[in-house]
Amino acid sequence: MRRILFLLIFGIAGLAVLLSLGIWQSQRLSWKEAVLADIEARISGETVGLPDQLSPEDDRYLPVSASGEILPGEIHVLVSVKKVGPGYRVIAPFRTGGRTILIDRGFIRTPDKLSDRQIGAMDVTGNLHWPDEIDSYTPEPDIDDNIWFARDVPALAAKLGTEPVLLIARSQTDPDITPLPVSVTGIPNDHLQYAVTWFGLALVWAAMTGYFLWRSRAPSESEAQ
User: Fold this and answer.
1) Can you give the residue range of the structural domain that contains 17?
2) Which residue of 45, 91, 112, 121 shows the fewest CB atoms closer than 10 Å?
3) Which UniProt keywords apply (predicted)?
4) Is 90 part of a structural domain of the chain?
5) Is residue 174 domain-resident?
6) Is residue 159 located within the same domain as residue 76?
7) Chain-centre distance of CA 72, in angstroms?
């Protein structure tokens, strides 16, 4: 009886833990879906002019339409595009309304790194963003070859002499640059997979617990004789 009681308590405790993890991931899934829906709504909202005062929290993903001038000088941020391969995001200074901000013009292939690109007067539509792409594993920029490994807005702004504000273009600013607009597709949402995993493990745990309880209650050959 002690063995059966131990197996029962151990089995129920393990099942409770696994089920609670599955429920937690289900709740996280609902939360993440609401966050993504909010981001999508903000991205696709009505465009406005560039606000005078900006907040990285309140104005993240704000749709903006601005007229101005793309200035000389650009930074290349290494990136890989699915089904295309490696290349660079082109980050350039953009003067609009008496101020200069950063503009993410989009993607170029690696061989186009040294090609000339259109600059000058331009109307740009896009979204404001302050990407969080820096961690302890991010390499330092290769200044000599102008290769950066993340869109570190303050560092990019210091290098190009702009405000720490990044406008990611939706409209095309050069025939050879492919815009990479802000979207929710790059935001991971693996909570459904995690929930299914935990609930699957809970099912296996329950089955194994039932099996061991059955084996413990079944009479041995010596007892049967």
Assistant:
1) 2-39+188-224
2) 121
3) Cell membrane, Membrane, Transmembrane, Transmembrane helix
4) yes
5) no
6) yes
7) 30
The pTM score is: 0.78
Q: Residue 174 in contact with residue 116, Cβ under 8 Å?
A: no
Give me the number of domains the chain comprises.
2
3-state secondary structure the chain: CHHHHHHHHHHHHHHHHHHHHHHHHHHHHHHHHHHHHHHHHHHCCCCECCCCCCCCCCCCCCEEEEEEEECCCCEEEEEEECCCEEEEEEEEEEEECCEEEEEEEEEEEHHHCCCCCCCEEEEEEEEEECCCCCCCCCCCCECCCCEECCCCHHHHHHHHCCCCCEEEECCCCCCCCECCCCCCCCCCCCHHHHHHHHHHHHHHHHHHHHHHHHHHHCCCHHHHC
